[in-house]
Amino acid sequence: MRRLFLGIMALALALISARGAVADQRVPEWHLSDAPDGGAVTEFGSGIRSIFVVFRYQDAAATKIRIVLHDTGGVTIFDRANEYTGSGQEVWEVTGQMVYQTYFDQVATRGEDALQALDSALAATGPMLLVQAQAVAAEGMVIRSALSALGRYPVDLATKEALDEAVARVDAVVQAGMSLNFDTPEDEMRATVQQMKADLTAALQLAEEGRTTGGDGAGFGFLDMPEGQVNIAQLWVDDNITDSIEWTVTPSGVGAVASPTPPTATTTPAPTSTTPPTAVPSPTPRPATPTVAPGRPTATRPPAAYPGPTATTVPTVVASPTVTGPTPTQAEASPTVQEPGALEVTETPPSVIETAPPATLTEVVATPGATATAGPTRLVPRPRVTPTPASAAPGSGLPLGTVGAVAAAVLLGLVALWFRRHL
Prior knowledge:
Layout: H1 2-26, E1 29-33, E2 43-45, E3 50-70, E4 76-95, H2 96-123, H3 127-150, H4 157-179, H5 186-214, E5 231-237, E6 240-250, H6 328-333, H7 400-422
Helix pairs in contact: 1-7, 2-3, 2-5, 3-4, 3-5, 4-5
């Protein structure tokens, strides 16, 4: 009995260790950096124009390695994959210009998929029409995030106006789709979908105009991140997420690049005058009077403590603000002091992180019990996958919960076998 128990446990541990070893052999190490041969960096400096993905692979056999970068709004800004055999190291460069162009590509690709989905919705009836419209509204939030990011680049005024108008049109699409529900009459629902299609078509045209007038993005750097938000880098090995890294771009990060066109200081020439300056009489010296700093009490000492004649002037005291709050006059004369602990809250749109392979909006799922026809299709929203926890990172084997489950199952089996033999 004891030997049976030990044999089963040894077999289970061997299987778990073998699975973990395979993950280690594929990509044992990877990181982001500000240089091709640099160390790991997760906080990059403002204006940085190139970020490098560095990974090492070993004992690979036609292993597909894929790196995907998402911004804080869930927009894919970089996606590349290659197959590798053997062992070695790879370095991929991601430039700010590439990211700028990828934003436009994402708007165009996702927008065309959304238009096709709206056409399918108009051909559908009943609940299918509602499902399709709401799925397009959800996709519109990602399109809006990409357009908003493009508006933050140093583009010309015409390009920025076109992008701002495109954002407004996409906002209308999202709001219209989210306003529909099962109580909405079908005629009203169909009219709303028609308007959504018109607004989305106009938004895509405006985005294309912005791409034409905005140039190719040469010299653009990565965008700074709002405080408290991060981008996501994902490592895929053979179509499975094995690890993820949070990274950001801030003014205090590594590899900051100065603006290529700093503002030029203008100097005003001194005015010339032929009139001789008017003599200003010197002020009559006044006895020195002590000045008390704001907020500090005035100490009164006996006259005997100071040698010499008794001062006849009254010391000038600078009034400090009262505790009960400044009056309008004091507020103008005194600087505003922010109390410690005050928090500045910045409202930001919800962050949607895509962690699944890119999918189109035209995926169709068969409805149980429905008859297959050439008519309506059902739009399924893009799945969202939570980044793999640290326990599933390369080199860590199975999660601890899996090991506990295997051990518990083996133990229960052994107890049942013991009762069967002795009872």
